[in-house]
Amino acid sequence: MAQHTQQQWIERIHCSSVPLEDLSDTACPVCESTDRQQLIEERGYPLWRCKWCTHVYISPRPSQSWLADLYSSEYMPDSDDGQSWEVYLDRIFEASARAILAYHPQRGDLLDVGTGFGGFLIRAEQDGWRLHGLEPNSSAFAVAKDRLRDRAVLYETIFEEADLAPGSYDGIVMTNVIEHVREPLDICRRAYTLLRPGGFLGLRWPQTSWITLNRARLAGISRTDNPIIGAPIHLHDFQRRSMELLMHRAGFVDIKHAWSSTRRQPKQSLPKATVVKLLTAVAYGTHCVTGGRRMTPFVARLTLGRKP
Ligand SMILES: [Zn+2]
User: What is the 281 CA–ligand 1 centroid distance (Å)?
Assistant: First the structure.
């Protein structure tokens, strides 16, 4: 069993603090507008909403070198084989695999960015994809390598620095990656370049700020040490509009928001577990009735777009 429970790990990693010299201001990372409204201060990091594209983001934000150090060293939880961790994620991998097949029934070369212990690639293998993965954390990479052996091409690096050939992939998947990166538009544009024509990009992204922010507002506070979006590890909280703009600006068309399920929750009190189930049921019902066009907050989505 892992030395940390998932919840302990989340609390530890989200309490990381960024030195002042590693912080710099930014305009909206999606549309580049500087017209914005401050929502709250989360753990000392101002949280903004872009007035033009609705994107929610922190500014100032950590430097690329601080983030690269974090993800290559302490970011992944301690784990013997990764499987105890992935028990929490299996429903997400299953939902993503099904959504991808519905969107893109053809197979080919699939690149999983931030592959962790390799769980999503192992699931995707069942569907007949040729497997490729990137993972910067050395201990997670070693586990993924051991589990997948020569059935996958794996690189121990971050996406921004990976030496990959343009036009090499039929699909690129990033599960809970895009909210961690400084320049989401650059990431999506790089993915576009790496795809073959007709290939797809799938971004799984959380939505958290609506509920956490309104809870803070009801309490009448303007700064908090409680998580709102998860700063400074999460730099963004995408909204439907800002996610679609991000994909469009990178060149993707035929954008769809697929249901992505939720991670299994570690031990919760009965009232909390009931609220989580209720919110998930409302989100799922709304998603089905509107074909994914309306989103209730709280539940993550897998947004898919195609390279023409
Ligand atoms: Zn914007």
Answer: 30
Measured distance CA(17)–CA(70) in Å, rounded? 11
C-alpha to C-alpha distance for 286 and 275, rounded to whole angstroms: 16
Cα separations (Å) of 236 from 81, 95, 209, 256? 30, 23, 10, 20
Mode of pairing for the β-strands spanning 253-259 and 301-306: antiparallel
pLDDT, tens digit, for every residue of 123-137?
Answer: 999 999 999 999 998
Average pLDDT of every residue of the chain = 86
> What is the pTM for the complete model shown?
0.88
What pLDDT, in 10s, does the model give residues 172-202?
999 989 999 999 999 999 999 999 999 999 9
CA of 120 to the centre of ligand 1 (A): 31
Q: CB within 8 A of 68, min separation 6: which ones?
A: 136, 158, 161
Other C-beta atoms closer than 10 Å to the C-beta of 147 total 17
* 283 C-alpha to ligand 1 centroid (Å): 25
Instruction: Give 241 Cα–ligand 1 centroid separation in angstroms.
Output: 9
Report how far ligand 1's centroid is from the alpha carbon of 152 (Å): 37
Domains of the chain: 23-306 (3.40.50.150)
